[in-house]
Design a protein that fits this description.
The complex is a heterodimer of chains A (about 180) and B (about 100).
Chain A (H helix, E strand, L loop, with lengths): L1 H33 L3 H21 L3 H26 L11 H27 L14 H9 L3 H24 L6
Chain B lengths: L6 H21 L3 H26 L4 H32 L13
Helix pairs in contact in B: 1-2, 2-3
Classes of the chains: A mainly alpha (about 180), B mainly alpha (about 100).
C-alpha cells in the first residue's frame, strides 16, 4: 500500500511542477508585456525563460533547459539590463493615461487575441501525423554527435555569425561617441 | 496519459507566447520594450520546435539542435539591437519611438 501511495504522490508532484512551470511562462510573458517600466519587463522576460527551461526539461531536453537559463537569463537579460542602465537610467515620465491610449491598447488586443485563437485552434485540431513507433535517440550524446557531423557547417556558421555580431556591436556602439557628450 | 506527455499544452503555451509578443510589439513605446517582445516571439518558435519534434518526429535530436541555433541567433540579434539602441540614444537622448522621426541621408 505505501508504495502505491508514494507513486501517486510522486505523480501528483510531477503534474503540479508542470503546471507551475506553465504558469511561470505565461505569467512572465504577461509581466514582460504589460508593465510600464522597462526594468520590470526584463524581469518578466527572465521569469518567462525560467518557466520555459522547466518545460524543456519536461520535453526530455535537459541540455536545452540549461542553455535557456545560461543564454537567455545569464546573457540576454543581463545585456538588456546593461543597455537600460546606459541608455535610459532615469525613469521616463509616465505616459498620460488618456482615453486614446486605452482605446489603442484594446485595439491592439484584437490581433493578438486573434492570433492566439487561430494558433490554438490549429494546434488542437490540426491533422498532426501519428507519433512514430520507433523513437530515435534524443540524449545529449546524440545531440552532440549530430551537431558535429550532420550539422557541422551550420555549427561553424553560427560561430562566425556570433563573431560578426560582436564586432558589429562594438563598431555600431562606438559610432556616435564624441567629445561633447 | 499524463498531461505533460501530450503536445497540446506546449503548443497552446507557445501560441500564448506568440500572442503576447505581438501585443507587446504593437503596444510598447520604447525600443527596449519592443526588443523584449521580439524575444518572446523567438521563445514561442523555439518551444514549438521542441514540442513538435519531441511528439511527432522520428528523429528527436534535430529539434534540440535547431533551438540551439535559434538561441545563438537570438543572442547575436540582441547584441546588435542593443548597440543600435545605445547609438540612437547618443544621438536623440531618448529611446521613445515617437521621438525617432528624423532621417539623415
Amino acid at each position: 500500500m505505501p508504495a502505491i501511495l508514494g507513486e501517486q504522490a510522486a505523480a501528483w508532484v510531477i503534474a503540479a511542477l508542470f503546471w507551475f512551470f506553465v504558469a511561470l511562462t505565461a505569467g512572465g510573458a504577461l509581466i514582460a508585456v504589460l508593465t510600464t517600466r522597462v526594468i520590470r519587463s526584463v524581469c518578466g522576460l527572465a521569469i518567462c525563460c525560467m518557466g520555459l527551461a522547466g518545460l524543456y526539461y519536461y520535453l526530455h531536453s535537459p541540455f536545452l533547459a540549461l542553455m535557456e537559463v545560461l543564454i537567455y537569463i545569464g546573457a540576454v537579460c543581463v545585456t538588456i539590463v546593461f543597455a537600460i542602465m546606459l541608455a535610459e537610467p532615469d525613469e521616463p515620465p509616465p505616459a498620460p493615461r488618456t482615453k486614446g491610449t486605452w482605446l489603442w491598447a484594446v485595439v491592439m488586443l484584437i490581433p493578438a487575441f486573434g492570433v492566439f485563437l487561430l494558433m490554438s485552434h490549429l494546434s488542437l485540431a490540426g491533422p498532426w501525423p501519428q507519433p512514430p513507433v520507433v523513437r530515435g535517440d534524443e540524449s545529449l550524446r546524440a545531440v552532440g554527435i549530430s551537431l558535429l557531423t550532420q550539422y557541422c557547417l551550420a555549427f561553424e556558421l553560427i560561430s562566425l555569425v556570433l563573431l560578426a555580431a560582436i564586432l558589429g556591436a562594438l563598431v555600431v556602439a562606438r559610432e556616435g561617441r564624441t567629445r561633447d557628450h | 496519459m499524463p498531461v505533460y506527455e501530450q503536445a497540446e499544452v506546449y503548443l497552446v503555451v507557445a501560441a500564448f507566447l506568440l500572442a503576447a509578443g505581438i501585443f507587446g510589439l504593437l503596444r510598447r513605446r520604447t525600443l527596449v520594450g519592443m526588443l523584449i517582445s521580439g524575444e518572446l516571439i523567438f521563445s514561442a518558435a523555439a518551444l514549438n520546435f521542441v514540442a513538435l519534434n519531441h511528439f511527432h518526429a522520428p528523429e528527436p535530436a534535430e529539434g534540440q539542435i535547431f533551438v540551439l541555433f535559434i538561441m545563438g541567433l537570438a543572442a547575436a540579434e540582441v547584441s546588435i539591437a542593443l548597440s543600435i539602441i545605445i547609438a540612437v540614444y547618443r544621438n536623440y537622448r531618448s529611446i521613445q519611438t515617437r521621438d525617432l522621426t528624423d532621417l539623415k541621408g
